[in-house]
Amino acid sequence: MTAPPLTLAERYAIHLARDRRRSEHTVRAYRATAARLCAFLGEHWGEPADPARLARVSAADLRAYLAHRRTATAAAGTAAGLSNASAARELSAVRGFLDWVGGTGSAPRLRGPRVRKGVPRPIAPDEAVALATEVAEESDEPWVAARDWAVLLLLYGAGLRIGEAVALRGAVLPLGETLRVTGKRGKTRIVPLLPDVRAAVEEYAARMPWPVEPEAALFRGVRGGALSPGIVRVKVRAARARLGLGDRTTPHALRHSFATHLLGRGADLRALQELLGHASLSSTQVYTGVDAAHLLDVYRAAHPRG
Hints:
Number of domains: 2
Number of strands: 2
Order of helices and strands: HHHHHHHHEEHHHHHH
Shape: elongated
Distance between the termini: 45 Å
Radius of gyration: 21 Å
Strand order of the largest sheet: 1-2
CATH topology of the largest domain: hpI Integrase, Chain A
Oligomer: single chain
Helix content: 55-70%
């Protein structure tokens, strides 16, 4: 029996994996977006979304698709629906697919949704996840994508400072349920590792093209040296611009979000002080000015612990 022909989404996934060397996570996400777009447009147009028809897709068609995604996501019970950051990521993936179908530049120009300028910290959980995903998916090298994802998850899922994350040595492997971190003034602390965070670091270590050495930096730059915090900041800055996030969306904002979300979940200040490595309780008390009930809702909806 002859196998059915591959769909456009499946062919696009093969292109991403074989020609663009995208990570498995990225290929899976982009294939799903392409399949959703083709299914929606087929119903929207009343005819198959084949390459010839996709070459004529309009900005209005894409706006209709994004509106559909927001409605479908809200109906599925995901907080208030597709956030602006997530919608911007969806639009970016759609453009990539349409450029592959019709050639670079063929996707219609459409301004992505934007959040209010100067959005206050902490950033929402879905924005934190969208930011980390956008940074990781920007790299054509699977091991670099895995590295960036792991570093940002350590900030958002374990509350590390960016300097603490890039200072980790190979000796921390294999990981357990906790991680010993050396912070400011050489002070050490123990932080719990969520399964998703641990899995991200382990996947990066497995993909890294250099052997893990106990005394060498765990996170490496593309030439094999220690990863610079500045590289992470530059990548986050570029990703937040693509997602329309405010300029306060920085690597440190991910750590801030970790703290406020835990506080909203019921963690006391003393425990939070230990987790963050603050020298004094007054440094931790800045996190009390948050809406704990709201944070608990969004935390359960989108945080890795949820």
